[in-house]
Design brief:
Layout lengths: L5 E4 L6 H11 L3 E4 H9 L3 H8 L1 H18 L3 E4 L4 H4 L8 E6 L2 H7 L2 H5 L7 H17 L3 E4 L3 H13 L3
Parallel strand pairs: 1-3, 1-4, 2-3, 4-5
This protein binds adenosine-5'-diphosphate, shikimate-3-phosphate and magnesium ion.
Pathway: Metabolic intermediate biosynthesis; chorismate biosynthesis; chorismate from D-erythrose 4-phosphate and phosphoenolpyruvate: step 5/7
Main location: cytoplasm
Family: Belongs to the shikimate kinase family.
Length: 167
C-alpha cells in the first residue's frame, strides 16, 4: 500500500512525540503515537506493562501495533517508540522514515524527572547511554532522512521544506 505516512524515529527524548504533534497541525493531517496507541489498546501505562509483563511482551504489542498501522493507516504523521525500529526493522514499509537525531548529552539536558519516570529504559543513565550508542547506527541505517533535532522550529521547517520539494 502506498501510504504517504511520515514516521518519526529516534532515541527516547529526541522529540518524536512533540515534533509529530506539531507537524500534524502544520500539514493539517492526523497524528498517531505508538506508545499512546498501545496504552489505549491495553488500557495500561507503558511503565506498568514493562513492570508487570516485561519488555518482551511490550515488543510483541509494538509489533502488533505496527502491523495495524502498516495495513490501515495513510496520510498520517506517526511517532514510534524509541525501540520500535530495532524490533521492527521493516518500518519503512509503512512510510517515509525520519530519524530525529540528538546527542545523548543533549537528551539528558532536556529530560526532567517526570519524563524520565515515564521511560523504564531510562532509569539507569549509564545503560541508557550504551543503548543510545547501539541504536544510533540502527536508526541511521533505517532512515530516509536524518535531522539533527536541536532546535524544534528549525526541525519543523526542514521537514516542511523537504516535503514541499517533493511535490
Ligand atoms: N528540540 C526539541 N524538540 C522536541 N522536544 C524537545 C526539544 N527540546 C526539548 N524538548 C522536550 O523533550 C522532551 C521529550 O520529548 P518527546 O517528544 O516526548 O520525546 P520522544 O517522544 O522522542 O521520547 C519533552 O519534554 C519536550 O518538550
Ligand atoms: O526506547 C525504547 O525502547 C522505549 C521508548 C519509549 O518511547 P519514547 O521513545 O517516546 O520515549 C517507549 O516506547 C518505551 O518506554 C520503550
Ligand atoms: Mg514519545
Amino acid at each position: 500500500m502506498k501510504s504517504n505516512n511520515i514516521i518519526l524515529t529516534g532515541f527516547m527524548g529526541s522529540g518524536k512525540s512533540t515534533i509529530g504533534r506539531i507537524l500534524a497541525k502544520e500539514f493539517n493531517t492526523y497524528f498517531l503515537d505508538t506508545d499512546v496507541l498501545i496504552e489505549s489498546f491495553e488500557n495500561k501505562t507503558i511503565s506498568d506493562i514493562f513492570k508487570n509483563e516485561g519488555e518482551e511482551a511490550f515488543r510483541k504489542m509494538e509489533k502488533k501495533c505496527f502491523e495495524w498501522i502498516k495495513n490501515s493507516v495513510t496520510n498520517t504523521i506517526i511517532s514510534v517508540g524509541g525501540g520500535l525500529p530495532v524490533y521492527v526493522p521493516e518500518i519503512k514499509e509503512a512510510g517515509r522514515v525520519i530519524y530525529l537525531r540528538v546527542e545523548f548529552e543533549d537528551i539528558l539536558k532536556r529530560m526532567n524527572d517526570e519524563e524520565i519516570k515515564k521511560r523504564p529504559l531510562f532509569q539507569d543513565v549509564k545503560k541508557a547511554k550504551e543503548l543510545f550508542k547501539k541504536r544510533d547506527k540502527i536508526y541511521a541505517e533505517l532512515a530516509d532522512i536524518i535531522i539533527e533535532n536541536n532546535d524544534l522550529n528549525k526541525t519543523v521547517r526542514l521537514i516542511k521544506d523537504y516535503y514541499a520539494g517533493d511535490k
